[in-house]
Amino acid sequence: MARHLLLTRPGHDYATRYLSAWAEKFFDLAKNKNYSIIDLYHERANRKEVESVIKKRDPCFVIINGHGNDDSITGHENEPLLMAGVNSSLLTGKIIYAISCRSARVLGKEAGQYVDTAYIGYRDDFILLYLEKHRTRPVEDKLAELFLNPSNLVVTTLLKGHSAKESVLRAQQEFLRNIQKLLTSKTKTDDSSALRYLVWDMKNLVLHGNKDKKLS
Amino acid sequence: MDSVQYIIQYDDSVKELVLARLETLPSGAVISIGSGQELTKEELIQSVRDGSDIGQKIIEIEMSFLQGLKDGVLYGSTSAPH
After folding, report:
1. pLDDT exceeds 60 at position B2
2. Is the pLDDT confidence value at A125 over 80?
């Protein structure tokens, strides 16, 4: 039976375009691991499509790139996709990774209470630093890489069959590796100014629910 | 950004410290923070000067970083998953 991975990739501002571009980096691995990727790109990253895909295709892994707040995560043009107390039960039995601000606070906590569900996200604002000159070529942005490589490690660790807890720990270790790299004398002062934001993201990456859950 | 009230008010010396640190950001750097806020280095500095919600958040992040230094966060004490 095909294993489905649902991914939303909005693109209405630079931050969402960065997240969406960097998400492509784990496509090959997902395909090699025999996942069928359901890629809701730009306008298709809307609530109707997300609900429909979850109900009809039952993806085991849901990756949401976008903005968010305590109660919800959003898609293209900031349309709320998944909301606490509204449609979060759709996430039951899945692993979710939300690359957005704050959604782990309420939505993630609620989803984590559903049977056999693991919700990985950020409990405060997710900070991303990038360089204006790379806006049209996000994957070449070395400053953004410091933030998005650790984030992608959550996904790749899960795709390789490790647990939700392991994926969070590895991502935090990668954040830490980047932080320690910036502390060396070879680093330009410019880049080391990213330190405080990496520490922030590392500390706010959390997991709710079934810590031992793996992709089935 | 969603309307979030930040209760802690920081005094001017803290604000000055944060402003000095923000000056070290690379020119051309943009920060994405909150729901859809994207600020250049100059806008970020102005937001701290103005004491806006984003400015307060930036100060909170800076203070959290300094607290983290005290707690040894740079040397391996990551928080465990919840």
Report:
1. no
2. yes
Is B36 in Cβ contact with A180 (below 8 Å)?
no
Q: What is the ipTM of this complex?
A: 0.90
**Out of A3-17, A122-136, B68-82, which region has the weakest mean confidence (pLDDT)?**
B68-82
Is 0.90 surpassed by the pTM of this model? yes
- Selected for mutation to probe chain B from A19, A65, A101 (highest B CB count within 10 Å) is A101
What's the CA gap between A10 and A18, in Å, rounded? 10
Domains of chain A: 3-209 (3.40.50.1460)
A60 at interface of B, judged by CB pairs closer than 8 A: no
Separation in Å, CA of B82 to nearest CA in chain A: 5
Of A20-24, A139-143, A160-164, A184-188, which gets the smallest average pLDDT? A184-188
Position of tokens 């998005």? Answer: A148
Q: Residues 90 to 149 of A: which have CB under 8 A from any B CB? A: 101, 125, 127-133, 135, 143
